[in-house]
Amino acid sequence: MADGVGTVELRRAVVFDGDRPLRLVSGAELGPVEVAYETYGELNADRSNAVFICHALSGDAHAAGLHAGDDPKRPGWWDNIVGPGRPLDTDRFFVICANVLGGCKGTTGPSSINPETGRPWGLRFPLVQVRDLVNVHRALLAELGIERLLAAVGGSLGGMQALQWAIDHPDEVKGAVLVAASARLSAQNIAFTAVAREAIMRDPDFAGGDYYENERGPDRGLALARMIGHITYLSEQSMREKFGRRIQDADLPRYGFDVDFQVESYLHYQGQSFVDRFDANTYLYLGRVMDYFDPFSDPAHIQRQLAGSETSFLVLSFDSDWRFSPEHARVMASELRGAGAAVTFQEISSPHGHDSFLFADPPEYHRTVARFLDRLAGAGPGPA
Amino acid sequence: MRPDLDIVAAMIGRDVRVLDLGCGNGALLEALIERQGCRGLGVENDLEDFHECIGRGVPVTHGDLEQELHRIDNDAFDWAVLSLTLQAVKHPDDVLSQMKRVAPRLIVSLPNFGHWRLRRDLTLRGHMPVTPTLPYEWYDTPNIHLCTLRDFERLVRDLDLKVERMIPVGADGRRTGRHTRLAPNLLAERAVYSLST
Question: Which sign does the torsion angle of CA A120, A124, A130, A134 carry?
């Protein structure tokens, strides 16, 4: 991706420490908290062009560009939307992406060392909520000297963070872009998280979450959890088009219980490669972050926060997304409007299911995001 | 902005919540938001127009207004506006009663199929009329529910709505001369109605 942001570097900042710990919504205190983050583009003189990317469950701080020595075909996870001339235009915007609290890609989480014991936290890491994730992002911004975002942008769990941020601190977020997100998980969503969690916790190698010093962790459970997740991220149509009933590496079925169909092989690959890059405890914690998310449970609070606020919202959903269906997004948009917020909503036709937020096609998606960000940045209504 | 939209903006006033169904490029809502302190929401199905609304900073839902209207909460707005669109919807009666559900005051503008030129074309020439206000041929028109002002007023009564004001306008969207008032159903090319529940 020679035309993207080029070579980038993962940075770290300690935003809370033992003397000045992070106070969680639960009341528990946590310190130190280290954050891994990346930035693309330049912060302008009046610090008004910052766009924060909130990542989804399995994401990380490496949203765009390449780390030194990377395969040029494998840039950061949202490279198609970040870069010169792309919707998150690094010629104009200062784009920041940070690994979330509870993550396993450089930000403090269950695999970090608990300073009191000198050993990894495991399940002794406190339960965190979306609001805690946001507060860590805000601490990072304070560190970078940024008081107000032009926009907070996120898909799925990332959209939940952007939503919470805009609700809690409307004066800090000029615009919020919420893609393939939901303001509350449905029973079906929670059921999928539950099965994924069971797969991990029932793995004999889970060891109550203290597997870091063992020869192997709950790899089989984590792979299974990822396989389940992947089924829900794709659509029936995309699976049919990608795999159909085709047989892996053969024309005729082998008739047995091993992997035979292409779709099985794909899921196995996804499961295995996830084990190499992700921590099972983080999967459990972030799953719970999503389960408990319910920002509209106190309508009076939302009304107080948003009535008269200047924050504008862009809510996007995809017709083939059945994990967070357009109905989730419509309800979210309507609840925001009910509280007095300015909300633009679009349901985009896309074959890619929940994963649509990661794709550059159909072009309508990026076009809408670009237009919304242009407007926030003060560009006039000129031609499309 | 189209002159008939200026008439609509003047009817609406300041600091109210406005729903604009089929809001086009968002010009009316932009004026209401910027100049009159209103809070607005547009519904627009055309993608180019939808994007132009975003560019103007007008909150908008992309989609079919008849479907979207059903999703809006009761009394969510003070005004619901439908400009030159009633004749193109599938169920005009349902659209009006839905508008009434979401807002106590309505503005509806429509082309008048009772205008003398249209009557002439049909009765004397035997052709479906093609005029500046209704410029389409019968086979490619989006206007599937044309009516006269008198027809419209009967539906308004049937739906228990009251006509607060009626302003006849010409094909250019401008207010017409006084004489139109004498027989608007014959002389007005269009009309802007303000209705209340």
Answer: negative
- Rounded Cα distance between B92 and B146, Å, is 10
Residues of A involved in catalysis: 156, 321, 354
Q: What is the DSSP string of B157-197?
A: HHTT-EEEEEEEE-TTSPBPPGGGGGSHHHH-SEEEEEEE-
Is the minimum CB–CB distance between A330 and chain B shorter than 8 Å?
A: yes
Of A9, A94, A106, A112, whose CA–CA distance to A53 is shortest? A94
Per-residue pLDDT tens over the stretch B110-132? 999 999 999 999 999 999 999 88
Task: From A215, A219, A218, select the one nearest A205 (Cα to Cα).
Answer: A218
> Cis omega (within 30 of 0) on the bond before A32?
yes
Please state, in angstroms and as integers, the Cα–Cα distance from residue B39 to each residue in A182, B11, B30, B60, following that order: 24, 15, 10, 12
CA dihedral B66, B71, B77, B82 (to 10 degrees): -10
Task: Count Cα neighbours of A129 within 13 Å in the Cβ-side half-sphere.
Answer: 14
Distance from CA of A64 to the nearest CA of B (A): 26
CB B103 within 8 Å of CB B48: no
Verify whether the Cβ–Cβ distance B55 to A375 is below 8 Å.
yes
This complex has an ipTM of 0.93
Helix A280-292 and helix A187-201: axis angle, to 10°?
160
Helix axis angle, B149-158 to B92-102, nearest 10°: 50
Structure tokens at B46: 């055309």
Q: What is the pTM of this model?
A: 0.95
* Nearest Cα residue in chain B from A366: B51
Nearest to A39 by CA among A64, A14, A68, A66: A64
Distances (CA, A) of A105 to A344, B118, B197: 33, 71, 59
Q: Does B76 touch chain A (CB under 8 A)?
A: yes
pLDDT of B156 reads: 98
Flag whether residue A308 sits within 8 Å of chain B, measured between CB atoms.
no
| DSSP-derived secondary structure for A232-280 | HHS-HHHHHHHTTTPBTTSSS---SSS--BHHHHHHHHHHHHHHHH--H
Q: At what angle do helices A187-201 and A219-233 cross, to 10 degrees?
A: 160
The reply to whether residue A312 touches residue B59, judged by beta carbons under 8 angstroms, is: yes
Confidence of residue A380 (pLDDT cuts 50, 70, 90): very low
Tokens matching residue A335? 């609840």
| Nearest Cα residue to A352 out of A239, A245, A276, A218 | A239
A362-380: average pLDDT: 92
